[in-house]
Amino acid sequence: MLLAGDIGGTKTVLALFDIRDGKPFPVVDRTYPSQGISSLAATVLRFLEETAHTQDRQDIGAACFAVAAPVYGPAYTFTNLALTIHPDQVRKQLSFIPRLAFINDLEALGHWILSTEEQDCFCLYAGRPVDGGRVSLNKAVLAPGTGLGEALILAGKDVYPTEGGHADFAPQAEIDIDLLRFLQKDYDHVSYERLLSGPGLVNIYRFLGSRRGEPLPEPLPSPEEISRRGLTGACPTCQEALEIFTRILGAEAGNLALRALALGGIYLGGGIPPKILPKLREGVFLQSFLQKGRFTTLVEKVPVYVILEEQAPLQGAAWVAWQKITGS
């Protein structure tokens, strides 16, 4: 049996998997608010206690936790959550699990892409197929949610998480320059994550309200509300905020396609893209994605997919746990 976890900035999902036909198969899962977690090990023990009727903890052969934090050094500190994981402490507290690994959540998404034969994805843009010969083509993942994650899948086999979401935001339109100046009043460094995330969508909404001289509601609308009202057209400010968000998302997806030479595809993960799929299909995303000057003809070859599977990082972590057992 395998234990897998997806510890994100908003929610934490823990699950047990059996192995059926050589693949991890979900047995039971639970979701917990990440804000309420002070100890990962304590949360795991709680989960195992709640699901004790389905398993004996001694049957767990391996575990893998996908975390929304840089995974290096003696402690993993979350950017968008007041939580620090000390992996050595967790291993001691969960010593009944013989093999235990931590990976970045975008790395888990990459492993899901590599391991899943029938991917639950929507093809936003088919691109122009390229024959990579004997070498598998590079792919890349861009995942706006509570934060903004990016990862590379090189030569169809190796997954490399990055912190590219914290790279400098590059304005492309006049309104983008005004947006940058607006956010520079609040942040010492304006990265793409300050725009391409749930809080980022709220930032764009705040900017537009200020630009229009409109009084901002208290409390501010949530990212979900801005998305919903933007899609229906019920709120002009929400509608424009979603338009700007989608355009900037397309630009950064195109940037990532160039950085990774991702002729195998760009995958949009995270919680936001599936929820705004109607907007992504309208054309502003693709127009911005392809607008790369002399390299437009290269980006035109890159397909774009939206990951629809909500538990893709969790399933990717389960695959890594399975690899710990098989040694593959």
Q: What is the structure about, briefly put?
A:
This protein has 328 residues and is of the alpha/beta class. Helix content is 38%, strand content 22%.
Structure, explained:
The mean pLDDT is 94. The chain contains twelve helices and 13 strands. The protein is an alpha/beta fold and 328 residues long. The strands form three sheets. Strands 8-13-12-9-10-11 form a six-stranded mixed beta sheet, with helices on both faces. A five-stranded mixed beta sheet has the order 3-2-1-4-7. A two-stranded antiparallel sheet has the order 5-6. Helix 6 crosses helix 7. It is globular and about 60 Å long. A hairpin with a 2-residue loop joins strand 2 and strand 3. The chain folds into two domains: 119 residues, Nucleotidyltransferase, domain 5, CATH 3.30.420; 188 residues, 3-Layer(aba) Sandwich (Hexokinase, domain 1), CATH 3.40.367.20.
Coarse shape: globular
Low-confidence stretches: none
Number of helices: 12
Number of domains: 2
Oligomeric state of this protein: single chain
- What would CATH call the class of the largest domain? Alpha Beta
List keywords for this structure.
328 residues; alpha/beta; Nucleotidyltransferase, domain 5; Hexokinase, domain 1; five-stranded mixed sheet; 38% helix; globular
Break the fold down into its secondary structure elements and pairings:
Elements: E1 2-7, E2 11-20, E3 23-33, H1 40-50, E4 62-67, E5 76-77, E6 84-85, H2 87-93, E7 100-104, H3 105-115, E8 121-125, E9 139-144, E10 148-154, E11 158-162, H4 174-184, H5 198-212, H6 223-232, H7 236-260, E12 266-268, H8 272-275, H9 277-280, H10 284-290, H11 296-299, E13 304-307, H12 312-326
Parallel strand pairs: 1-4, 4-7, 9-12, 12-13
Antiparallel strand pairs: 1-2, 2-3, 5-6, 8-13, 9-10, 10-11
